[in-house]
Design brief:
By secondary structure, the chain is α+β, with helices and mostly antiparallel strands. About 45% of the residues lie in helices and about 15% in strands.
């Protein structure tokens, strides 16, 4: 997530949105929000469950999926599909900040990146084509340095 919103303030924002929508706070959902807020990039439901378990927090898989559906339904997280049949989820910055992804086809590592020149190029391309882009995703695939060696 870009620098416009810290992870702590995202967690506070997410909890406030859910309370305002009439959802009561729940221990499992709060734990999932904390796991998501501590990440710099996307996680799968299984990775979230594993991190909760590693922190000695036992949250059932169904609770993880319910919380993810709720958070996504309120626009707090976005689903990221990278073509490997695994959905990942990452924070949505209400201020619009975002990043893109590098994916290693060999080991599956996912690396977030920001690039101001790329953003300007996307804006110029949209204007040149007369297209009003409201969002975009950039995923670069290949092999990471460790897999190339």
């Amino acid at each position: 997530m870009a620098e416009t919103l810290s992870q702590t303030s995202w967690a506070d924002h997410a909890r406030a949105v859910l309370v305002q929508a009439g959802h009561q706070r729940g221990g499992a959902r709060d734990a999932i929000i904390d796991v998501l807020a501590a990440q710099s990039c996307a996680l799968s439901a299984l990775e979230i469950e594993d991190r909760l378990r590693a922190g000695e927090r036992h949250v059932g898989r169904a609770s993880v999926y319910r919380a993810l559906d709720l958070l996504q339904g309120h626009g707090l997280i976005a689903r990221l599909d990278l073509g490997d049949s695994v959905s990942r989820f990452e924070l949505v910055d209400p201020a619009g900040g975002h990043h893109h992804h590098l994916v290693c086809d060999s080991c599956g590592s996912l690396v977030p990146f920001d690039d101001a020149d790329l953003e300007r190029s996307i804006d110029r391309l949209s204007r040149r084509l007369g297209f009003s882009a409201v969002g975009h995703e950039v995923v670069l695939r290949g092999d990471c340095g460790a897999c190339r060696n």
